[in-house]
What we know:
The chain contains 22 helices and 16 strands. The chain is of the alpha/beta class. The chain has three domains: 2-22 and 143-242, 3-Layer(bba) Sandwich (Glucose Oxidase, domain 1); 37-137, PtsI, HPr-binding domain (Enzyme I, Chain A, domain 2, Orthogonal Bundle); 260-545, TIM Barrel, CATH 3.20.20.60.
Amino acid sequence: MTTLSGIGVGRGLAVGPVLRMPDPLPEPPTTQSTLGPDAEKERVMHALAATADDIRARAAKAGGMAGEVLEAQALMMDDPMLKTDVDARIDTGATAERAVHEAFGVFRDMLAGIGGYLGERAADLDDVSRRAIARIAGVPAPGVPESDVPFVLVARDLAPADTALLDPELVLAIVTSEGGKTSHTAILAGEKGLPAIVGVAGALDLAEGTTVIVDAGAGTVEADPSAEALATAEQKIADRAARVHTTGPGALADGTAIPLLANLGSAEGVDSAVAAGAEGVGLFRTEFLFLDSSSAPSVETQKSAYSAVLAGFPGKKVVVRALDAGADKPLAFLNDAEEENPALGLRGIRSLRASEQILRDQLTALAQAEAENEAEVWVMAPMVATVDETRYFTGLARELGLTTAGVMVEVPAAALLADRILAVADFASIGTNDLTQYTMAADRMLGSVASFQDPWHPAVLKLVGEIGSAGTTSDKPVGVCGEAAADPKLAVVLVGLGVTTLSMSAPAIADVRDELARWTLAGARDAAQAALAAEDAAGARAAVEGLTPA
C-alpha cells in the first residue's frame, strides 16, 4: 500500500478505481503557414468565438459559482491584448494554432509569475488556449473521460469547464498533482461537496484502474490498500451515508446554541446555503465585484449585488467582509505599487485606508442595501492589525449608516491585542487560513510548506483562545469563518476556546452540526485544553479524538 499526501478539500471519503484524464493536445509545430495571414486570422476569429460560445453554454448549464468562473473564462477570449498578439504572430508567418499557443502562453506565464490568486488562474488560461487550438484544428478538446462505473478522477489539474459539469453520481473524488486551496478545482469541488485532494506529488504515477482510498479530511490517497483498510474505509462511508443528520439550529448536547453560518462568494450560493440549514452568512466575500474590473464598481452596482444576497436571509445576520485586496488578489486601481512581499504589504484595511473613497462607496452601498432588505448587515474590515485601524473602520462604518462593525482577526498582532480591539469593535471574526499562515510563517499557497498550514497547531489554537477569552470578557461575539470551522472535530475545539459562531461552505454544515450535538460545553472546553497541551497539530488531533463521546 502506497500513501500520497496533498491538500484536502472537504471532509469526505471515497473508494474507487482510478480513471486518468487524457494528456493534453501536443504543442502545435512551428512550421510556417501556407494559407496566408488573412486566412489564418479568420480561422482564429471563428475558433475563439466558437470556444467562447461553448464555455458560456457550459456556464449556463452549471450555474452558481461554477457559472461565474466559466463566464470569466469566456471573457478571456475577448481580451484585445491577446488578439493583438495573436495577429502579430500570424503576420510573421505563424499558423493560427501556433499563434494562439504562443500568445496565450505569454499571458499565462505573466499570471503564473504574479502568483497567488492570479497565478492560480494561469491554468484556466491554458484550458481556454487548448480548447481554441482544438477548435482550429478540428479535433475534440481533451475532457473528462466517459465511464459506465463510478471512478476517482486523477489529473494534472482540472479546468473549470470540466470541473463545473462533473457528475457526482460517477465521479467519486478528484485527485490532482497541481493546484492549491484557491485553485478552481478546489473551489468548485468544495461547492459540489466532492472529496478532493489537490497538489498531490506522485498523483500522475497512479495507474489507471488502481483502487484508491481518498480521504479528503486527512489529505491522503492510499493506493492498492489492504483488505483491512478497504473494509474500514467502506464502513466509514456506509456509516456516514446511514447517519441521519440533525436538523435545526446548531447546538451542543447541553443546549448551548452555536449558530452555523455559510461562507458565500456571490448571490449564486444563497439557495444551497439555505437548503443546508445555514442560520445566516458568516462571511460574504465581496471581491467578485472587483477582481475582473479595471475600476471600482459604482455604489448602485454594488447595492444591487449585495441586495441579492441579503434578500435570501430575511431576519438573519449577513456578515460582509469589506474588499480584501492585495497579496494574492491584486487590484491595479487600488494599489499598483511593486512589492517584494505583497502578503506583508499594502493589503486589506491598509489598502482601503489608502483609497478611502472605494471603502466609503462600499459601505454606502451596504447601508443602502440593508435599508431595502430585512437582513441584518454586520460589516468587518480585513487584515486588521492595530487598535487604530479598528477605530478608523468602525467609526467610518457607523458614520455611513451601518450599526454593527467588526474586524477580521488574521494577524497575530490583532489576536494578542484582542481585548483592546474588542473594546472598540462590535465583534471579531477569525480568518484561520491567514492566521495560520502568519503564525507559522508558511505561505498558504506554497505546497512545499503545506504541512505547516494546519490550524490544529497549538500555536494557532492558543491565539484563537486569546480572542475567545477577550470576547467572553467583553461580551462580544467571536466567530470563525476560515476553513477550520468546516472540520467537525476542530469546530468543537474552537467552541471550547470561546468561539460563539462558525461559518463554512454549505456542504460542511450538516457534519459540523452532527458533531457539535455530541458534545457538551464542558466537554468542548476539555477538548480545547487537550489540544492546547499537545506539541503539534497531529498530537492535538489525537488528543481530541481520544475524548470524543461514544
